[in-house]
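A protein record pairs a chain with a discrete description of its three-dimensional fold. The following entry can be read in just this way:
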Amino acid sequence: MVTGILTQDHIASFILDESGDRHFEDRIIWNGYLAHWSGEKVHARELEQHDYKNNEPIIIIWPVESSSTEPFVDLYYNERLTKYFVSFLGHTAVNVNGSIFNFSHLMNENEIMDKEEYFYRPALGEFAPSPNNGLFEILEDGRVFYDKFGRNFMRTIHRIRIFGLDTEKMMAVLKQSLDIILNTPPNPKEPEKYKDFSIVSNNCATIIRDVFNQCGFPKIKGRFPRDLFVNTTYHLFCHPELDVQYSKLPQLFVPEAPMSVVSPLLNFRNYFRKNELRIFESS
């Protein structure tokens, strides 16, 4: 990993470290990074995936941020992607001490991710939207465009950070849930999809809800991402031994993604819970 100032001049872009050395000067640095973090201190490293222009490892860059030294759990509610109907209800994920668990109807998206890859992958190579339609596409030459770059470039993310949970137990239960998915026999007709996924009863929200239930919070309910997020926040605030902090990570606009939109709450009780909490201003 390299740390330094993201720099661009009239010739090239590069990471300038404290010794004055230039890193990745002859490599592709995504314009989205330059638009938001030029002149700022960042981390950078290579990914396993390659770009399609030079067939070199993709460079991922992310801002230098303070990290918690105390065990924590983050629950994320990702606003909906307006260009995908299946994203109408948004998405949710959970972070335990820096390991982000993501659950999806697609098998390759059921995974544990580092923070930088979840939030800040560049729109290059397989992570980029297709140049033909701006969406997911597999070309005849075999190149894939998953349209899965950094989530914070694709949408606004709402977060509650929770201190005081048993993070070891939560980690173990999450890994167990992920193992069940990864060991599920594939559907012969659609092997790329999780066979037991259900938009109502077995989705990204219900899996995380069940983990909270198994970790001692049976009152947490919710079938869909935003409802789960509000419901979880409401019930965890009722536990004085927990420190629950809400924040919003605004979308980092790039031309590859339209602005995201808050999805509706489908359980009317959560409207009252949200208003009672008085922390979800403009959310």
